[in-house]
Design brief:
This protein has one domain: Aldehyde Oxidoreductase, domain 3 (Alpha-Beta Complex), CATH 3.90.1170.40. The longest helix has 17 residues. By secondary structure, it is α+β, with helices and mostly antiparallel strands. A 4-stranded mixed beta sheet has the order 1-4-6-2, with helices on both faces. A 4-stranded antiparallel beta sheet has the order 5-3-7-8, with no helix packed on it. It starts with a strand and ends with a helix.
């Protein structure tokens, strides 16, 4: 398991290849990459993401460990960026490996639902007309209820 909260960009291909290498027992690998969207109708300059160092890593480790307990996973990777990100920049990556695809897909969805609604990150959209903190959406909160 690897959890990384970082400011620098990550290489999606390199991360996926490194994650996939090494364990022949895994028959399924699922990856998801989140990208900054411009929901401000072309007005978004940057998305500023803040976190509490230490606390954030502990929270992400805990949820990844919970995923490993719920599903038969060979490995888990969570990368989440912080700082100022432009539209089109990669924000995060989740990867899960398992013997079977069902476990890998469900665990990846579980991790994503948690990251979207409960992970200790604070996002601010900075547009040409000002700045506004972004709250978790109702549908993101609702997605957690299935788990």
């Amino acid at each position: 398991m690897r959890i990384s909260v970082q400011q620098e960009e990550f290489d999606l291909g390199a991360e996926a290849n490194t994650f996939a290498a090494g364990d022949d027992a895994n028959g399924a690998i699922v990856t998801f990459t989140g990208v900054v969207r411009d929901l401000a109708s072309g007005d978004l300059d940057v998305m500023e993401i803040e976190h509490y160092p230490g606390m954030t890593e502990r929270a992400l480790t805990k949820i990844a460990e919970e995923a490993q307990q719920r599903w038969s996973l060979g490995d888990v990777l969570v990368i989440h960026r912080h700082g100022r990100l432009a539209p089109g920049d990669r924000i995060m990556m989740v990867a899960t490996a398992a013997r079977h695809r069902k476990d890998a897909f469900e665990a990846a969805e579980y991790l994503m639902d948690y990251l979207k609604s409960r992970a200790p990150f604070w996002k601010k959209e900075i547009t040409t007309s000002g700045a506004e903190w972004v709250a978790a959406k109702d549908e993101d909160e609702d997605a957690l209820t299935r788990w």
